[in-house]
């Protein structure tokens, strides 16, 4: 749209393209070129006349592909060339949904800054939020954070009536669930079957999630297709879950609850299993064993009597079963061994006996070791027994984290100092590329941050996206944590992989406290990132007026240009930020400045209005208002100069 294709009919230009643009000569389409991290071939293809609106067999545009697999620079290039930000493929999926599904948070930022609809739903009912919530990958959590900053509908319902929270609470990791709850997701919205997020958490026996659900107002007596949450726990023999529900006010029945029998296979009888988990079942266990009961029989969940005894902390029963030949190394359907269950439920005495029977302390389950499990729940007693038995604190979990990284996420962790004392590497990063320090900073765990720094944590170590702990603190809106890190020696000029410094992040976060700290320490207000954009660009493009005003007062250059030749006013206008445009004009910005393509800020606004693709009605109204505002202040289109 901005880059015109008027030269594509020139024979001379066509011949030059064959020579200078080998990717085009080799017959690659723009869609194929967009599936890359290298933006140069895309720029070349667009300059040679490639169509940013082309479609593949599934109606994906180049922007769909770039959003999911390409780089932010490619997304920007396509958008500047007129790509429709909310284009839909054959399945109704938008580029933002594509980016969310792959956890490409940097691409999501580019799309949202260009006006992508954060609530657009695909034909299957998936939205950017529901897709991001379910996404895999080390950057998925950051992608969810980025999306939540744009205030999407947290309780949007899919075709079956499920919200993102209720559809994913059974298996999505706890950190994302807590993020959604803290943002205001409602745990009490029923789906078409009457099941709420609480029912689903109970159905999957996610005991650790009950406390945050209850804290956020979960209705423990809500009726559902299979009854109340307590009835669901009873139907599945989830004893620990039932105890938590009862302790927090759940009732045996609900006057409006008419549970439908589950369409499940007929349950077998497991008397030894029931006796093993009972508080008064020791003599029954002894009797059943004498009668020939198999101590290694597995039930429908592949749990043996030993697993239930361990889960409930029935030490005498555990000893009796072990002496009768129970296998301490067998795993259940979730790959949890008895040692994992003991660590999860903080049964240090049980752990000691299991270790005496030859269980290896570092046994890996589906995703973690027993020590990592104990650390993630801050169970000091269990962690100490495992460490004393030789458990390795530096093993990496299936999530790419160390035990210390898990501990760092817990407020006032007691396990973190225990791990450090045992020799845990305070700087070790696993596949997730998250340091314990960055995790503690992101969770605002000041005590653990100080502990890690005192034991040699690298304050400038980088994680996903090249972000340092200081980047994390500022992005999480923790000015006190940022101040702590700066005083401890954090480098405020350090750049992430996009070239953004702490000043860039603070400007986009509209954090005046941190901006004042950074300016007070002498950091430059006009340091450019990889795109040549200063911190003022981020503030102006995202409508952070307080930050923009402060930076201008501190001498930020209102005529600065990025690598694409755009001024601040070009980008503020392109991103539909009327107040930012007014602020920049008041500060002396040139309203008719030309970028590298010979376009004024007004040209960019009109180009968005002329876009043949779908532009939401409210966005179109705002753009029209912005165009009128610019013209009232003397703006001209290049064609009318």
TrEMBL record:
Residues 1-25 form the signal peptide. SMART domains: ANK. Gene3D superfamilies: Ankyrin repeat-containing domain. InterPro entries: Ankyrin_rpt, Ankyrin_rpt-contain_sf. It holds the Pfam family Ank_2. It comes from the Bacteria. PROSITE patterns: ANK_REP_REGION, ANK_REPEAT. ANK repeats lie at residues 58-90, 91-123, 193-225, 301-333, 334-366, 399-431, 432-464, 465-497, 498-530, 531-563, 564-596. Residues 251-272 have a biased composition (Basic and acidic residues). Keywords: ANK repeat, Repeat, Signal. Residues 248-276 are annotated as: Disordered. This is Ankyrin.
């Amino acid at each position: 749209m901005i880059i015109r294709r008027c030269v594509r009919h020139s024979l001379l230009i066509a011949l030059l393209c064959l020579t200078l643009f080998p990717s085009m000569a080799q017959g690659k389409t723009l869609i194929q070129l967009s599936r890359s991290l290298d933006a140069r071939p895309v720029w070349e293809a667009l300059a040679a006349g490639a169509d940013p609106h082309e479609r593949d067999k599934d109606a994906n545009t180049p922007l769909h592909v770039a959003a999911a697999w390409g780089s932010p620079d490619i997304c920007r290039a396509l958008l500047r060339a007129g790509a429709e930000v909310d284009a839909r493929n054959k399945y109704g999926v938008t580029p933002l949904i594509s980016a969310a599904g792959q956890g490409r948070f940097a691409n999501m930022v580019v799309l949202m800054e260009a006006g992508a609809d954060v609530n657009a739903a695909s034909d299957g009912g998936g939205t950017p939020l529901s897709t991001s919530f379910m996404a895999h990958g080390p950057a998925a959590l950051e992608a969810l954070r980025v999306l939540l900053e744009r205030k999407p509908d947290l309780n949007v319902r899919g075709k079956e009536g499920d919200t993102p929270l209720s559809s994913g609470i059974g298996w999505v990791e706890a950190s994302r669930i807590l993020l959604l709850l803290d943002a205001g997701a409602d745990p009490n919205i029923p789906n078409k079957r009457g099941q709420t997020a609480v029912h689903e958490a109970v159905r999957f026996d996610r005991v650790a999630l009950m406390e945050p659900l209850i804290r956020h107002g979960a209705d423990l007596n809500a009726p559902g297709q299979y009854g109340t949450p307590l009835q669901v726990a009873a139907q599945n023999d989830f004893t620990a879950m039932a105890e938590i529900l009862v302790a927090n006010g759940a009732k045996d029945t609900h006057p409006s609850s008419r549970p439908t029998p589950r369409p499940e296979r007929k349950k077998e009888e497991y008397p030894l299993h029931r006796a093993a988990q009972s508080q008064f079942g020791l003599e029954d266990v002894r009797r059943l064993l004498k009668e020939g009961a198999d101590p290694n029989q597995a039930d429908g969940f592949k749990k043996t009597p030993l697993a239930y005894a361990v889960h409930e902390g029935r030490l005498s029963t555990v000893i009796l079963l072990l002496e009768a030949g129970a296998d301490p190394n067998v795993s259940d359907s979730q790959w949890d061994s008895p040692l994992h269950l003991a660590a999860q439920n903080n049964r240090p005495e049980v752990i000691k006996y299991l270790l005496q029977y030859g269980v290896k302390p570092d046994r890996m389950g589906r995703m973690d070791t027993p020590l990592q499990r104990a650390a993630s729940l801050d169970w000091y007693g269990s962690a100490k027994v495992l460490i004393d038995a030789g458990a390795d604190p530096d093993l990496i979990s299936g999530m790419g984290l160390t035990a210390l990284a898990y501990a760092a996420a817990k407020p006032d962790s007691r396990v973190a100092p225990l791990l450090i004392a045992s020799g845990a590497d305070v700087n070790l990063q696993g596949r997730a590329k998250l340091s314990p320090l960055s995790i503690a900073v992101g969770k605002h765990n000041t005590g653990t941050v100080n502990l890690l720094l005192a034991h040699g944590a690298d304050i400038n170590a980088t994680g996903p996206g090249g972000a340092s702990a200081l980047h994390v603190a500022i992005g999480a809106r923790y000015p006190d944590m940022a101040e702590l890190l700066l005083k401890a020696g954090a480098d405020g000029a350090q750049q992430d992989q996009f070239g953004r410094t702490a000043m860039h992040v603070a400007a986009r976060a509209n954090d005046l406290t941190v901006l004042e700290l950074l300016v007070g320490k002498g950091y430059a207000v006009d340091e450019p990132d990889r795109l040549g954009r200063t911190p003022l660009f981020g503030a102006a493009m995202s409508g952070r007026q307080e930050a923009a005003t402060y930076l201008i007062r501190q001498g930020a250059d209102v005529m600065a240009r990025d690598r694409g030749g755009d001024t601040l006013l070009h980008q503020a206008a392109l991103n539909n930020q009327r107040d930012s445009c007014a602020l920049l004009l008041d500060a002396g910005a040139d309203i008719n400045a030309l970028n590298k393509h010979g376009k004024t800020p007004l040209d960019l606004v009109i180009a968005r209005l002329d876009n043949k693709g779908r532009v939401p009605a409210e966005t179109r109204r705002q753009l029209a208002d912005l165009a009128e505002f610019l013209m009232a202040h003397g703006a001209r289109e290049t064609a009318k100069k």
